[in-house]
Amino acid sequence: MLTVEAFSLNIMIAALAPLLGAFTLLFLFIFEKRIDLLEKKTREITLERELQTALYNQLNQEIQPHFFFNTLNSILSLARLDRKTELIRSIETLSKLLKFKYQTNNTFITIDQEITYVNYYLEIQKIRFRDRLYYEFTIDPNVYQAITIPFIIQTFIENAFKHSFERYVGEAFLKTTIEKREKDIHITVWNNTIEGSEQLSPDRGLGLENIKKRLELLFPDSKTSVQLINSDNGTSVLAIFPFIQKSEI
After folding, report:
1. Which of 48, 75, 105, 165 could make a disulfide contact with 172, Cβ separation 3.0–4.6 Å?
2. pTM above 0.85?
């Protein structure tokens, strides 16, 4: 025979059971919705990253045809002038450049790798321009293993030839400075030709815009910038982006 206490407990359990069941179902429903939202957010983030990667790779590919076209034009000019010895040297250098390029087909490269790449290009141009061309590098020793987008320095230097040295006669001075300032890297490529805004062709603007977009994609959480600066003694392009060493990736 049930006691009054046991009977009361059974009544309480019978009354609370539906409520507990309802709360359990509500909790499971909310938890399932939360999981669905997290999965949706994860899919969206993954898709966004994939789209950014695709855009970044597309922008990288846009730069390369311009470079190879201009390099081949430089070599062709040597052939037209019947400068055979220099022509052979240029072709040998181009083969080294192509070998280096297809060994380093990555999302990012180090400053050291970019400089190696640029030196091949400048060697070809030095053969072409001879004593007319003077160039120098000033490089902070701390930046060699910092990461950057491929072709950033090469594009700035190529623009100096395409939009300055090839258009105007006289000595061609080119200076590249790479330095670490606090938490950022500053890359400056200066040439001694003064360019007015009316002289800038659309493809130069597109090249700089390409660099700007790729820096934003490579460093999405940091401030980056690309600036074209005209002064009394020449024209500079300045790029600023975060200092991140390869070992930190």
Report:
1. 165
2. no
